[in-house]
User: Which sequence fits this backbone?
């Protein structure tokens, strides 16, 4: 592998486009990957796609089924992963979701519950459950992918933009916890921001996000902690 030593990286939302690209990039660099998703069959397909017949890759990939909206399930998952791997060096939280409306007043409680559950609650549960392990790593990295909409909400995306903004606020609080650590400094929490994910001229591709995420592992924590990094193309 290139760069630093091998890391243990938990990738949540692993079966989405960005999750798949990130898992592949991490495995390509020789890192151990714990790929977490909600659907067992999708995780099985991901494992087949990433490993193929490569026995060495099979040893580096661990797929885990978990509903990250369930705090008890996430705590159990975290305990199991730390016991199996001995440590956790990074959490790339890539759980997504989107919903919009035609008018501000069309936003519903159901829409808010779905978006806040996927975008905020899953992040709360995973960062609390893995906080101490990431801190103990001394080189822990936590990253999320947010949206430009969080800073420029519209009437039609009020719930989505608000949930993204809440996730960013939560991650800044995590960054403050990392910054306050005295016994084992060196961990960082950072937010990458996109306009949208895809292949259009203003989009950020899953491959570009994966490259950015993997690069965080060997970037100094002081350069990352608490930062909000714009990741869309600069020439569109």
Assistant:
């Amino acid at each position: 592998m290139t760069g630093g030593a091998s890391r243990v990286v938990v990738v949540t939302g692993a079966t989405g486009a960005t999750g798949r690209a990130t898992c592949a990039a991490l495995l390509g660099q020789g890192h151990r990957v714990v790929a977490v998703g909600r659907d067992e069959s999708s995780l099985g397909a991901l494992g087949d796609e990433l490993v193929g017949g490569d026995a060495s890759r099979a040893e580096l990939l661990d797929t885990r089924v978990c509903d990250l909206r369930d705090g008890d399930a996430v705590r159990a998952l975290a305990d199991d992963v730390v016991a199996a791997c001995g440590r956790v060096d990074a959490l790339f939280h890539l759980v997504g979701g989107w919903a919009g409306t035609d008018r501000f007043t069309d936003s519903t409680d159901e829409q808010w519950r779905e978006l806040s559950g996927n975008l905020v609650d899953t992040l709360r549960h995973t960062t609390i459950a893995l906080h101490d392990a990431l801190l103990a790593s001394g080189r822990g990295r936590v990253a999320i992918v947010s949206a430009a909409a969080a800073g420029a909400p519209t009437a039609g995306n009020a719930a989505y933009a608000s949930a993204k903004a809440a996730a960013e606020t939560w991650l800044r609080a995590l960054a403050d916890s990392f910054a306050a650590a005295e016994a084992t400094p060196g961990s960082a929490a950072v937010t990458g921001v996109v306009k949208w994910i895809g292949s259009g001229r203003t989009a950020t591709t899953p491959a570009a996000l994966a490259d950015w995420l993997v690069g965080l592992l060997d970037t100094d924590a002081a350069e990352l902690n608490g930062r909000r990094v714009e990741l869309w193309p600069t020439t569109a």
Summary: The two ends are 33 Å apart (CA to CA). The helical segments are 17-28, 40-51, 55-60, 71-85, 109-137, 158-180, 206-216, 221-224.
